[in-house]
Write a structure and sequence with these properties.
This protein is mostly helical and 213 residues long. 72% of the residues lie in helices and 0% in strands.
């Protein structure tokens, strides 16, 4: 996430919608920092507001509580991840393996560039309760469904291999996220991008098997 610019005031102030979007982005960034530094249990609306340089009243204009804030951060992170992966895959051209490799690299590069956001979405969310985990699970299902549909679209157009089922795509998503989570928690392997060949073998192996199904 990039640091938002200060919002002008007075007659030069932007429309309300723009101000609210900037506030929300600042709160996302602040919540990410607080959740990583303190953990979900010790985080509070007051700590997040203070980190963002805002009042608690402003926090509550956007979120009912820290749980809702956590869920919003997770949803935002997952949405951004999916967009980057699909965009990279579509720019990679017609070859199915090149598209999957591009999607894998885009994911790992994004996580490596924003490790705190990834840690909140993949690690800290586990301690945020059943509603937050439900939101995370739903986000994973959306990612798997989108990857499946994108791959099937390419298969229809060129006859190339694709995921045999949505569950095959979900198996890839789940494995990738677990590998990523381990790296964030334990530093194994040393760099996030070191996972690239492992994830490529996983995804390409599952997709290539669809030729025999």
């Amino acid at each position: 996430m990039t640091e938002p610019l200060p919002v002008p005031r007075g007659r030069h102030a932007p429309p309300l919608k723009v101000r609210l979007e900037v506030q929300r982005q600042r709160l996302f960034d602040a919540a990410t920092a607080v959740f990583v530094r303190l953990g979900y249990a010790e985080a509070s609306a007051e700590a997040i507001s203070r980190e963002a340089g805002m009042s608690k009243a402003t926090f509550y204009e956007h979120f009912a509580n820290k749980e809702e804030c956590m869920m919003a951060v997770v949803e935002y992170a997952m949405g951004e991840t999916l967009t980057r992966m699909l965009d990279a895959a579509r720019r990679a051209g017609d070859d199915w393996s090149a598209r999957h490799r591009a999607g894998v690299r885009a994911f790992l590069e994004l996580v490596e560039s924003a490790p705190d956001t990834a840690r909140v979405a993949l690690v800290e969310v586990v301690g945020a309760g059943p509603r937050a985990l439900e939101r995370r699970d739903r986000a994973l299902e959306v990612m798997a469904q989108s990857m499946y549909e994108d791959a099937r679209r390419g298969a229809r157009e060129s006859g190339e291999p694709s995921f045999a089922t949505v569950d095959d795509a979900y198996a890839c998503v789940g494995a990738i996220f677990e590998l990523t989570s381990r790296q964030l928690r334990l530093g194994r392997p040393p760099r996030m991008i070191d996972l690239e060949p492992i994830v490529e073998r996983l995804v390409l192996g599952i997709v290539s098997q669809s030729r025999t199904l």
